[in-house]
Task: inverse folding
């Protein structure tokens, strides 16, 4: 499955979720190892877009299943 080039990557998902340190399920430390920090969220957004444009996505699960 290919992610559409016009898929929206919400800034809040990066600045208020991925790059925020947390006690559990902390993604920010992992991303910081690759140079992505709260000081440069646009670089992470650009990297995600580049990856989405250059590779095929693999469906893991349906979001709807998580809501039930």
Result:
């Amino acid at each position: 499955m290919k992610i559409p080039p016009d898929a929206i990557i919400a800034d809040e998902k990066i600045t208020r979720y991925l790059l925020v340190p947390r006690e559990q399920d902390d993604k920010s430390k992992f991303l910081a190892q690759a140079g992505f920090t709260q000081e440069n969220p646009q670089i992470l957004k650009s990297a995600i877009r580049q990856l989405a444009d250059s590779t095929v996505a693999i469906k893991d699960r349906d979001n709807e299943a998580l809501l039930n």
About this structure: Residues 1-55 form one domain.
